[in-house]
Amino acid sequence: MKIEFFHDVICSFCFPMSYRMRQIKERYPNVDIIHRSFALAWESDDLANQFGSRDNAKNEILKHWEHANENDDLHRFNISGMKEASFQFPTSKPALLAATAAKIIGGDAAYWNVFDSLQNKLFVENKNIEDINIIREVIIQNNIDWLTFEPIFTSEETEKKVFDDIKLAQEYNIHGAPFLVINEKYGINGAQSIEVIQETIEKIAEEEHEPLILIENGSTCSLDKNGTWVCE
Predict the structure, then answer these.
(1) How far apart are CA 90 and CA 98, in angstroms?
(2) Cβ atoms within 10 Å of 45's Cβ, excluding its own
(3) Segment 152-178, tens digit of pLDDT
(4) Domain ranges of the chain
(5) pTM above 0.85, yes or no
(6) Which of 126, 134, 149, 155 is the most exposed place for a label (fewest CB within 10 A)?
(7) Could you tell me which residues come within 8 angstroms of residue 206 by beta carbon, excluding any fewer than 6 positions away?
């Protein structure tokens, strides 16, 4: 079974979902999890357009964090710490490029490790994951050679791979993250409970020829019809 896991480092509901997907991988070791980038706010202008200004984005997004923290099995979000942090809310671009560069070097396992480390830096440690020093720290912590990583991180080919994932999400008609695509035809939308994910995977394993099954009620971050980033 192949599961394509579309997620964004700055997506609050993707944080608890990644934790659950690690449990899924442990429970079903033969499941192949492929990591796909999904960008909620690629550049600064995206945040400004979605929230009126880059400065206002942080205040609004922290409201999403409260709901995501309730969804998170471990309730790890440090909301008060982020309120006190002086930096603007980061964009998707640097962290997704970093995770993708790690994938080029070490495959999906490296992508996942770097992705989770960057999310922990943002949501728990309240570090600015746009800061190259924070990215370097994460890369070194994950035993990736920085001199090997840096030229890949800044290459046009790495950015193209991110855009290829974003294009694939559009082809799948995915509008938010997290989102799972199973065997290219079944979908699980949002940060579902571990029980729902397991039940769906097991059902698909038995009924491989069923049409796309979309689980509708999970918490997700997406862009609404006005281009505003909402998490619910």
Answers:
(1) 14
(2) 11
(3) 999 999 999 999 999 999 999 999 999
(4) 2-231
(5) yes
(6) 155
(7) none
Q: Quick one: 13 exposed, middle or buried, by C-beta within 10 A (0-12, 13-18, 19+)?
A: buried
Structure tokens at 171: 């082809």
Maximum CA extent, the chain: 52
Helix 14-27 and helix 54-71: axis angle, to 10°? 40
Q: Which two tokens stand for residue 146?
A: 């920085």
Please name the residues in contact with 194: beta carbons below 8 A apart, sequence gap of 6 or more: 20, 23, 24, 73
Query: pLDDT tens digits for 78-123?
Result: 999 999 999 999 999 999 999 999 999 999 999 999 999 999 999 9
Q: Length of the chain in residues, anyone? A: 232
- What is the per-residue pLDDT across 39-83, written as a single tens digit (0 to 9) for each? 999 999 999 999 999 999 999 999 999 999 999 999 999 999 999
Are 89 and 58 in contact by the 8 Å Cβ rule? The answer is yes
**Long-range Cβ pairs for the range 73-80 (8 Å, 24+):** 73/16, 73/19, 73/20, 73/194, 74/16, 74/19, 76/15, 76/120, 76/123, 76/124, 77/12, 77/15, 77/123, 77/124, 78/123, 78/124, 78/125, 78/126
- Third-level CATH fold of 2-231: Glutaredoxin (3.40.30)
